[in-house]
Amino acid sequence: MNPKKILLSALLLAAVALPAAAREAEPAPVFGLGMGLQYWHADDMDVCDKDAMGGANLIARYRPVPYLGIDCRLGCSGVWDGDKYRMDGKRYETDVVFLCVPVEFGLLGMLPAGDSFTFYAGPGVGYYWYDIDVKTTRKHHHHYHTEWNEHVKLADDIGWYAVAGADWRIVPCLSLFAEARYTGTGTHVRHEKSAEIDCSGFGGQIGILFNF
């Protein structure tokens, strides 16, 4: 074989192999900060005639070693419902907003799969703050109306969750992620013996994570 062709082939092989080797040698991100959009379906929740909530989460993730992650999450999910009706010749509008604000901490087992993908799963615990606001508006005519606001105090809850997902690092400093999760939590009206509002159920989330 021609020595020039051998040398050229070796140089081409090195040009392809060296960047790949560099990527493999690149360490996993130690810290990540991101945000995700969440869908939360609660099978037994019946608030605002709905059984699902939408919201967002802020996520801070620390990886002390490549195969372990520690998550801190702050989120807000909720559901809204409105109604219009007439009574005594006047028009009324009612808006009901149900909110859940969780602060969660979890442990993740991280499984790198090649240069760009990482699969993860793990459990966590959280403190879940609940709230219901009811606003009623009585409209007399186009430029005048009266409003009543009622704040229903709900009991907070200490719950848990389990999550499984995948992280795709598209560039060293930025990842896209998608995950499925189950959350176990519920609430009830404070100081009253009322039926529990069970918010336990499955959900999903997609978002971005900035790597440092």
Description:
The chain is elongated. It starts with a helix and ends with a strand. The protein is mainly β and 212 residues long. 11% of the residues lie in helices and 68% in strands. The strands form two sheets. Strands 1-2-3-4-5-7-8-11 form an eight-stranded antiparallel beta barrel. Strands 9-10 form a two-stranded antiparallel sheet. The model is unreliable at 10-25 (pLDDT under 50). The chain contains one helix and eleven strands.
N-to-C span: 48 Å
Pattern of helices and strands: HEEEEEEEEEEE
Q: Can you give the mean pLDDT?
A: 83
Number of helices: 1
Write down the overall geometry: elongated
Residue stretches low in confidence (pLDDT < 50, at least 5 long) are 10-25
| Count of DSSP strands | 11
Structural class by sheet pairing and helices: mainly beta
Rg computed from alpha carbons, rounded to a whole number of angstroms:
25 Å
Indicate the percent of residues in helices.
Answer: 10-25%
Strand order of the largest sheet: 1-2-3-4-5-7-8-11
Largest sheet: 8 strands, antiparallel, barrel
